[in-house]
């Protein structure tokens, strides 16, 4: 995008036409009063990412502390079991999917609010409230952060069988069955539930990645509106 501002409408239109001829996308920023804001853009660091990042950090800290109190502190106080190692893998693997789903919901929630406001006003040509306008402008950033949390959840899940705690729990179950001279039969119902859960998780992650890829400008520019909407609504 090329930001253009000026008080002369004809001169500004000429510059915007030159920008289009060069394959760029001109964006009218208004009068010369916006010149200082445009000049400060190179000095800003990820201006559209501040709210999504701060929101993600705040929610992550809240859910992390909640899981820490529930799975580590509470168990240590009342059951005298030290599960502090849950901080490394178990708790992050619980926080990441929750964050991915919450942020994904925050991507589509403002669209619902916008539709309700337009129906209430009876027109789509009035500006949205400032809070909703800023929320809608940072939806792509929220979606990409949600995708990052989904990737982290997939990685944490893949390394789960390598953990010492999982190996200890498995060997403990085997030894317990051997000492009791009793083998637990396979519960096919639980097997179906577990496999279905994992299969749906893999499918959901694939669709999430596909949604993120089609949201990239370099990809979305190569699909028409109907193709883009087909992927987004799925």
Supply database-style keywords.
234 residues; mainly alpha; 3 domains; two-stranded parallel ribbon; 10 helices; 2 strands; 71% helix
Task: Please write out the topology.
Elements: E1 2-4, H1 9-21, E2 26-28, H2 35-39, H3 50-79, H4 90-121, H5 130-137, H6 139-159, H7 164-179, H8 188-215, H9 217-220, H10 225-233
Helix pairs in contact: 3-4, 4-6, 6-8
Brief summary:
The chain is mostly helical. Helices cover 71% and strands 3% of the residues.
Structure description:
With 234 residues, the protein is mostly helical. The radius of gyration is 26 Å and the shape is elongated. β1 (2-4), α1 (9-21) and β2 (26-28) form a beta-alpha-beta unit. It is built from 10 helices and 2 strands; from the N terminus they run βαβααααααααα. Strands 1-2 form a two-stranded parallel ribbon. The protein has 3 domains: 1-44, no CATH class; 47-183, no CATH class; 201-233, no CATH class. This is STEA4 Metalloreductase. It is found in: Membrane.
Shape: elongated
* Amino-to-carboxy terminus distance: 30 Å
Class from helix and strand fractions? mainly alpha
Helical fraction: over 70%
Largest sheet descriptor: 2 strands, parallel
State the domain count: 3
Number of helices: 10
Strand percentage, roughly? under 5%
Mean pLDDT: 87
Subcellular location: Membrane
Keywords: Membrane, Transmembrane, Transmembrane helix
Membrane topology: Multi-pass membrane protein
Organism: Edolisoma coerulescens
């Amino acid at each position: 995008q090329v930001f253009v501002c000026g008080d002369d409408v004809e001169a500004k239109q000429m510059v915007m036409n030159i920008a289009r001829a060069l394959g760029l996308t001109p964006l009218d920023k208004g009068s010369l009063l916006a010149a200082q804001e445009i000049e400060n853009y190179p000095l800003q660091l990820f201006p559209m990412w501040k709210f999504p990042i701060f929101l993600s950090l705040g929610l992550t800290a809240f859910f992390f502390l909640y899981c820490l109190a529930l799975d580590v502190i509470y168990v240590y106080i009342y059951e005298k079991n030290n599960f502090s190692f849950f901080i490394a893998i178990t708790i992050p693997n619980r926080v990441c999917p929750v964050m991915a789903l919450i942020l994904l919901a925050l991507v589509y929630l403002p669209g619902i609010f916008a539709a309700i406001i337009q129906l209430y006003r009876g027109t789509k040509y009035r500006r949205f409230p400032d809070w909703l306008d800023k929320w809608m402008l940072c939806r792509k950033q929220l979606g990409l952060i949600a995708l990052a949390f989904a990737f982290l959840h997939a990685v944490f899940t893949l390394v789960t069988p390598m953990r010492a705690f999982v190996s200890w729990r498995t060997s403990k179950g085997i030894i317990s069955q051997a000492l009791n001279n009793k083998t637990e039969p396979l519960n096919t119902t639980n097997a179906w539930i577990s496999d279905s859960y994992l299969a749906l998780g893999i499918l959901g992650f694939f669709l999430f990645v596909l949604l993120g890829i089609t949201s990239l400008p370099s990809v979305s520019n190569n699909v028409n509106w109907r193709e883009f909407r087909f992927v987004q609504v799925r």
